[in-house]
Amino acid sequence: MPEETLYADLKFQDSAKKEEAQTSDKCGGKVSSAVSHSQHKTVVILTLLCLLLFIGVVTLGGIFYTTLEKEMTKSNHLQSIKEELQRNVSLQLTYNLSNLEKIQNLSTMLQNIATQLCQELYNKDPEHKCKPCPKGSQWYKDSCYSEANGYKTWQESVKFCSSRNASLLKVKNKDVLEFLKSKKLRGYWLALSPREDYRDSETLSEKMFLSEWFEGSTDDLNGMYCGFIDRVKFYYTYCTDQNKIICEKTASKVQVESVLNGLPDGSL
Q: What's the rounded Cα separation, in Å, for the pair 258 and 137?
């Protein structure tokens, strides 16, 4: 009897262990299966995300490349337009400069013709309205010569001419030299710079072109020597002595209109 009871207990324990083992195997299998399914799902999701990301990058790259290509095309087109405009502007400037040069040449030629015509009219009528000098003055080359009445000291003469925007007589080129010789002037102050020492008379010549012409102050000229012209020579005397005056100034341009209006009818 005790042996049968012991046998039954052992059998029951073995049976219980088997059932526990089977239950354990079944539970383990179910857990393993669930974990495997979850991992697979995660992999699928990650794969899809990677695929979407790749598609997005490719799409953005395509858009960027397309946009870049369009912008480069536009830029090249604008550059071509710019270069064309620059060529056109350069050609226009060249054309304008050429025309301006022609106009300037024509203007110079017209001015020279007007001056020559005015000179001819002036020779016939010294007070012709085309004369580019003040009334009562003499026109020679590009200068106007005005003679003042009376006698003045050298200092007074300088101030007198200066008040009329002119200067005392100067001999600075061959044309003026020959002009003064032909006039045979007597006792007219020259614009030679005052000297402290006396100087003997000299013949009017081209040596005068190298002379020092007055450009400074007229203050305190007592005891100083100033030059004056007498026919074909020039002399020195005290600056406080009195002589005659000729003022000179640059002639204005001859006005073409004054020449045309002054021409006799039918001369053109």
A: 18
Whether the CA torsion 14, 18, 24, 28 is positive or negative: it is positive
Residues 76-100: b if buried by 16+ CB within 10 A, e if exposed? eeeeeeeeeeeeeeeeeeeeeeeee
Query: Considering only CA atoms, which of 238, 244, 247 is closest in space to residue 152?
Result: 244
pTM value > 0.90? no
Please provide the size of the chain in residues: 268
Please give the torsion angle defined by the CA atoms of residues 126, 132, 135 and 140, in that order, rounded to the nearest 10 degrees. -60
Helical spans, DSSP H, in the chain: 2-124, 154-162, 174-183, 256-262
Mean pLDDT, rounded, for 123-148: 90
Phi, psi of 146 (to 5 degrees): -120, 130
CB 234 within 8 Å of CB 94: no
State pLDDT tens for residues 171-208.
888 888 888 888 889 999 998 889 888 888 888 888 88
Measured in Å, how far apart are the chain's first and last C-alpha atoms? 171
pLDDT tens, residue by residue, 145-171: 999 989 999 999 999 999 999 999 988
Asked if 139 contacts 218 with a C-beta cutoff of 8 angstroms, the reply is no
Q: Are strands 246-250 and 167-168 parallel, antiparallel or unpaired?
A: antiparallel
